[in-house]
Amino acid sequence: MAEPAKKLANFEPRIVAFLCHWCTYTGADLAGTTRQQYPPNVRVVHLMCSGAIDVVYVLKALMDGADAVLIGGCHPGDCHYESGNYKARRRVAILKAIFKQLGLPEERVWLRWISASEGRYFADSIRQMTAAIKALGPSEFKAQWDA
Fold first, then answer.
1. What separation in angstroms does the CA of 78 have from each of 26, 29, 48, 88, 138?
2. Quick one: average pLDDT of 57-75?
3. Averaged over 94-107, what is the pLDDT?
């Protein structure tokens, strides 16, 4: 019985972040250049626009062992491709509705609007997400698909 508790105490979530080139990716870069401290739990996938996110990318990341997915884009109205962030918002809403119908925790997918000048907000978001996913524990996705 002590073994699972020990395993959870040492649990470090794996987070895959799909970041818009023009805003959130640049905000992440700013967080690094200004030496903002945040956990190293995130792996970044660089997209030209958050509107390029596909539900399949999110599901694949979760099935391959990610404990959570962050999708980051420009603030609504500021998209360099005019409506990409609105497309991302609709896709995430649909994905969360599907998760809810399947009884899966929708808290494993986060959508954040982070501009290029919000390096501190990016670092804060990663800290908050890491803490929230640690509290949820490891994702059951990979185990369900491996069975």
1. 14, 19, 14, 13, 35
2. 95
3. 92
pTM beyond cutoff 0.85: yes
Whole-number Å distance between alpha carbons of 113 and 109: 14
What kind of architecture, by CATH, is found in domain 14-142? 3-Layer(aba) Sandwich (3.40)
pLDDT value, residue 23 = 97
Reported as a single tens digit per residue, the pLDDT across 128-139 is 999 999 999 999
In angstroms, rounded to a whole number, what is the distance separating the alpha carbons of residues 147 and 93? 28
**pLDDT for 1:** 44
Round to the nearest angstrom and report the end-to-end CA distance of the chain.
23
- What whole-number distance in Å separates Cα of residue 111 and Cα of residue 127? 15
Burial letters 50-84, b for 16+ CB under 10 A, else e: bbbbeeebbbebbeeebbbbbbbbbeeeebeeeeb
Positive or negative torsion for Cα 32, 34, 35, 40: negative
Q: Is the dihedral of CA 11, 128, 119, 113 positive or negative?
A: positive
